[in-house]
Amino acid sequence: MAVNHSTENPVQSPARQAAFWKDVSLSTVTAGFVAVTIGYTSSAAIIFQAAAASGASAAQISSWLWALGIGMGVTSFGLSLRYRMPLLTAWSTPGAVFLATSLPGIPLDEAIGAFLFSALLITLCGLTGLFERLMRYIPSAIAAAMLAGILLRFGLELFEVMESQWLLPLVMLAAWVAGRRLWPTLAVPGVLLTGLGVALLQGQIVLQGIPLAPTTPVFMTPSFSLATLIGVGIPLFVITMATQNLPGVAVLRAAGYQPNSSPLIGWTGGATLLLAPFGGFALNMAAISAAVCMGTDAHADPRRRYTAGMAAGIFYIIMGIFGATVTGVFNALPNVLVISLAGIALFSTLAGGLASAFMESQHRDAAIVTFLLTGSGITLLGIGGPFWGLVAGLVTLKLTAAKQGV
Predict the structure, then answer these.
(1) What are the pLDDT digits (tens) for 272-292?
(2) Residue of 209, 225, 317, 321 with fewest CB within 10 Å of its CB?
């Protein structure tokens, strides 16, 4: 069921603005925490690699994490509150992978200049409405199939990990089944607590040697080289838009929210412009982590799930301030716990995406192509499966529609 929210007409009544705290619940706060957990544990190491590849010092690497955490936190909190949707932002993980392989040999000041150039291009896409015009050509079935394909590997990994470490994921799965039967709105919080309890009993969580100090941001003066702007700035822009912002907005629409994406892209680009000199190389709309906040496990009422985005924003800000400490804590968690938590937390969103993708018979051929290609995990020409799944699905839809005379 579509949610009647639009970034063009956010709820503005004083009573609604003053009473947002009434929409907060344990399930939305937990969804926000789980979303942030997935984001940090899945790719924080890549950020370290990208920063190190640029020749950044230890203090500058910490500043990268500070800038990204603060940027994601402020934009997630602010956009979710402003537009009453679970609007989570994230760093560009594919962008970080690209930087880790492309920055060696490039001076750090030129890399910062490339970040600013990429952010300017993203901001212009938002301000001109170009991105929103593109999104209008993507049917909801294709968007839902892409969402399901993005989330597929998380569901599969939950069961694949049981082959080598069966106890923890099995206990967590049992906790989810029991929670869905006895207290549906608290099923995922119960899974998290159960997983932490079992991991502690097994001695799998070790918190020794974790630094306990806030991060100090470091301003890095940019410089501009035409070769670096073309070789790093433009590819970073394309990767962030095609593999991050496009799926991020599609996930929102697949979940029933109907945002005008132009302001969202504009805000993420503008935030990156401000934070790039501190290491914030690319902020974008989140897909995987945001999906955690869009399902029924976050809240039964879609109109209240925006508080999950706000909760995620607060956690992101804390992680930005204490970047090194938080990274150490997440690294202390057993990988099997994180994999199991992510898979279970995304069950309802994955199921909803599959149901929407294959609801209408005339879209099923295109949806299955999009779903399988997106879920395959392939990378072609440096661009991941979600983009190619979307392209292949749209082509299939066009050809099959022409054959059927639609």
Answers:
(1) 999 999 999 999 999 878 888
(2) 209
Kindly give, in sequence order, each residue whose CB lies less than 8 Å from that of residue 340, ignoring residues fewer than 6 positions away.
158, 161, 168, 169, 172, 173, 191, 195
List strand residue ranges (DSSP E) for 221-307, in order: 283-285
Are 323 and 69 in contact, with CB atoms under 8 Å apart?
yes
Residues 287, 95: Cα–Cα separation, whole Å: 15
Asked if residue 23 lies in contact with residue 306, where contact means CB atoms within 8 angstroms, the answer is yes
Bridge-partner residues for 257, per DSSP?
3
Average pLDDT over residues 50-70: 87
Q: What is the mean pLDDT of the chain?
A: 84
Under 8 Å between Cβ of 371 and 385:
no
Whole-angstrom distance, CA of residue 253 vs CA of residue 160: 30
| Side-chain half-sphere CA neighbours of 396 within 13 A | 21
Would you say residue 68 has pLDDT above 70? Answer: yes
Q: What is the pLDDT of residues 340-354, one digit of tens each?
A: 887 887 787 788 888
Residue 101 Cα to chain centre, angstroms: 22
Pull the structure tokens for residue 306: 């925006």
